[in-house]
Amino acid sequence: MEGEVLPLETKNILQECPRFRVLVVGKTGVGKSSLISFAFGVDRNAISHYARGVSDIVTEHVSDHNPRFVAHDSMGFERGETMNLDTVRKFLEARSGGTIPLKDRVHMIWLCVAVPFAEFPAFKNADDNMIQLAWSLKVPVIVVFTQYDRLVHRMEEILIDEDSMLDDEHFDRIAADRAEAKFLESCVKPLEARNPGMPYERTFGLRGEKITPPSQTALRRLLSTTQRLVQKSIGGDVWVVTAMAQRVSYWQGLASAASFGNSTLETCLVTIHQEIAESWNFYDPRDLLNGPVFRNRVKALAQLAMPEEMDAGSWFENIDHIQTLLGLGTAIAAPVAPAVAAIGLSALFLHWLSRTIHRTPEILRCLMAYILDITLVMDQLFLVVLATHPPRALTAADIDTALESYMLLNLGDVHKDVRIYVTRAKFLQILAANSAEQKVKELLQKYATR
């Protein structure tokens, strides 16, 4: 039945831990508020700031657009002051440890350190003390080097003074190389000397209303490192909440079809769709992502991977125009690739939707393709939405852009990889090893833009 869903595992997870909680610490002026704002869609103007040295660490900063994330801002660590560090210590002691409910714990600390663009040390004693405190309480911490763009601009100024005759390409490359070398010398080496193995990331360009694609990439690296450390350090399902908070989704345990019992293929796909769409936590007040238009478009993509290669011609009347999308051809030529809306749903596919699910190569290809297709479309949609700040409500045009981008960039290759993996000859081996889930994860890592 259209719209029927199976029980959603994420609902059980969210009962135990409904939000991912991060404490952002660092010296005043390093860009903590901008980082919180751009990383999770929290309105910068809503982040409270008081007099210098006064901490409002207990305040929870939550975005209406992103309720899965809560930030705590420690305010600044100033030279010679111990009050804020003591405040952080008391806060973390009350928010860490096995006796504290998972939902109330601090799951991650971001220690913000400004990249020096002059001859000043990056680290202060307060930074070292913060790292030691986090480690003693077993709270994962990442050093976030902020304002890297100031260092790049400084290298550009020096280069202009040295040689103003360089063309733009050589100028940009030399300035970038010098900035990287300076970053390694002034930030990375001192960090490794003080705290071997300490994870770090960098951010830059978090100003104004929009950020550039390189800044988006750096931000997503930070979010990915955060998720990895939470999964490693805390265990359990907090990493799922972390993924929801950062609008990144992975699906576990579906590719083998073992969880669906006697459900129809339609019910399975609706369940997959709702679970993944909700886990990305986009600001979607019109519920476009769970609406029938978007569901049918994802179905139109996933169906392409379902038939055997020799049967594909009987499934689709426009086989010549879509064979690359089925994973049967070579690279897609953008001018001749059909629009997603023009593909349509095959009559044979519609017949399969009403049938009880069985373990067959066709079903496995369809399930894997659907998981990959919707997740990678969401990945493209994330880029569309991240470019706007503050986050606005999703539009149908945003979704169309993400669908077409994914179709032109990766769809044919994704389906080709699914077909290579799920062949009738290897199908029993796949079931015996229960390895389809791992393959889905591998393909997500291969094709995701982050």
Automatic annotation (TrEMBL):
The keyword Transmembrane applies. Keywords: Membrane, Transmembrane, Transmembrane helix. Coiled coil: none annotated. CDD domains: Ras_like_GTPase. It holds the Pfam family MMR_HSR1. It comes from the Eukaryota. GO terms for molecular function: GTP binding. The keyword Cell division does not apply. Residues 21-146 form the G domain. The chain crosses the membrane at residues 332-354, 366-387. This is G domain-containing protein.
